Amino acid sequence: MAASQSGVELRSLVCRYGPVEAVRSMDLTIAPGEFFTLLGPSGCGKSTTLQAIGGFAPPSGGRILVGGQDITHLPPARRPTNYVFQNYALFPHMSVAENVEYGLKRRKVPAGERRERVQAELKRVGMQDFAGRRPAQLSGGQQQRVALARALVNRPAVLLLDEPLSALDFLMRKQLREELKAIQRDVGTTTVFVTHDQSEALSMSDRIAVMNAGRIEQIGTPGEIYERPQSRFVAEFVGSANLLPGRAIGADGLCLVLDAGITVRLAGAPAPEGRRCLLMVRPEHMRLVEEGGLPATLAKCTYVGDHHEILATLADGGAVTIKQQDRPSLSPGAPCRIAFDETKAHVIPAS
Predict the structure, then answer these.
(1) Range of the domain at 324
(2) What is the pTM of this model?
(3) For the chain, how long is the longest CA-to-CA vector?
């Protein structure tokens, strides 16, 4: 089954709860067939945005379009969308097959076609052998698969997923996110996915919108978001980031004098001369060296399984984290020197 592909467009979308503006004049375009993720901390407005698309949070202003059609004021049942809730929302008195069939019955799809479509979607999510069971007889991961089949069986133009993996344990989350992305590629349905888990967003998405306080901070591919964040918030929320303060120098603004005591040549776009900046270096791009680099003091080393995390204090009082496989030979309190790959560093505004 290849779903009809429709894009989503939000134009100056505003959602308020009393005096609280949960979504602030949001403009967003999601391409047909795209797996698009709204990523951000609790309370940033990501779930409210998803609910507005699905018709469960009436907007206070702006417009919502799917496939070019204005659906801003349509009720959920009349929208070309299907919503998978965080708690699955399966009917406990119905079997797995009856849960998946429910939406088709409401649409008065003929019985023969209903059976074929239910069987096809249960097979797609690997639940064909559990058709007669009730939700209480299923694990959390199995219930999530049923909820996904129930949404896909209606062949929506847009699939809306509200933190669907958050209630599962780590191994099940990892397995299901791989399955979910594979299913989305197979079906081709435009998918809007909400999560606060950066690893889910980075591993599953075609593009990501990082949200903060009701606004979009940055939109980009997983690589762009992780490697070239446009703000301090994005740098610190998505992954671990060492932020080294400094000042741009030179007529071309291609050098940065760090407060920690060295000058680095910038690999990316220049910064205006004299401007205060932050040089972002991810922990995996830093390393301990015997000569050169930044003078520092090793504070502690923590073993976390596949690598060691080293915390060091710089001469200007700032702290940095280093990720490396080998445990350092130095003890806490010992002087050390830290180098990093300047081609992997990225400059962001200090404000």
Answers:
(1) 240-349
(2) 0.91
(3) 76
